[in-house]
Each structure stands twice: as structure tokens, then as C-alpha cells.
Specification:
By secondary structure, this protein is of the alpha+beta class. It is 43% helix and 31% strand. The chain has one domain (2-182): Roll (Nuclear Transport Factor 2, Chain: A).
Length: 197
Amino acid sequence: MRKYLILVLFVAVVAYGSVYTASSPEGALAEDAGSSNQAVVAKFMDAELKGDTEGMSALMSDDYVQYGLGVHDSADKAKTLEGVRHHWEVYKYGGKRFRAIETVAVSTAQDGGRGRGKGDWVFVWGDMETDYPSTPEYGHKATTAEFAYHAAFRVKNGKIETRTVYFNHEDIMRQLGYKMISVAEQQKHAKAGLVLK
């Protein structure tokens, strides 16, 4: 019985220490920073979903860098904002929606290179929907493309310093009716004297 009582007392002390550590001032400050960084990212994404480049700009640092799908795919603040404006003008989106599945705030002291430096990060996992209008490019039918969208944002002093986005661009293109043609098929067309455009 005495061994059992000592074991219960040990478990209680360990549990109390864990609770106390989690509620320490440092832990509370980290949680507050994580929550405020998540709020910055949520505002940024809301502005982007509406094509509101002024709203986005207000939440980006002056030295903002965005990394895209390719290894050498990056843009500064001006290029990112121009890209958003351009996409809304060219594609004439009927709307965009994002449903977050998980949002996590973390801090890291590790430097991973290519925009994955140390600092405070917000990771967003979810599903995006984009409404494309009925145009000749899309076979004269309105289409809503649905795809997984994930992004990693580094936030400092209430501003987004960097973002890396992940989504399947090919999946979107297929939903819009585009066909992917292999190199072998392209060569067959070339041998037949046909030019693919």
C-alpha cells in the first residue's frame, strides 16, 4: 500500500509541475503571440480572398518575400500584390473561399533556408474554392475549382515577413478542362507536322 501511495504522490507532483509550467508567464506570452500572429494571417488571407491588395499590403513587411510552388519561384511585396491584382483582372474570379482545417503557431530557432528561417510561424492547412466565370478558355461554362491549400507564414511585429504556399496547380487546370500532354505525345504531334498551342 505504501508503494502505491508513493507512486500516486509522484504522479501528482509531476502533473502539478506540468500544469504549472504550461501556465507560466513565458508560456502565456508565447500563446498570446501565437494567437495574435494567427489573427494577422487570418486578416491577410481574408483580404487576399477578396482581391483586397491594400488590406494585404498593410499586413506585409516592406521586405516581404513569397515562395511559390517551384524551387526558384519567389516574389517580393510589390510583385506579390501585382500578381494578385493581375489574377483578379485576368481570371475575373466570381469569388474565393477558404476553409481552414488546422492552424498552428510555432516558434523555431532553426534556419531551414529558402524562406524557412527561424522565427514565429503560422501554418495553415485547408481547402480552397475558386469560382471561374464562363469564358471561351473554360469551354463556356462556369467552374468552381476545389483544391487543398497549405501555407506557412513567418510573422514579426504584427507583419508577415514571408509566406510559402503549397497547392496542386495541375489539379486546378484539369478542373478547368486543360489536358496535360506528355513529352512523348508532343513528339508524336511534331512528327505528324502538328503544332501544339
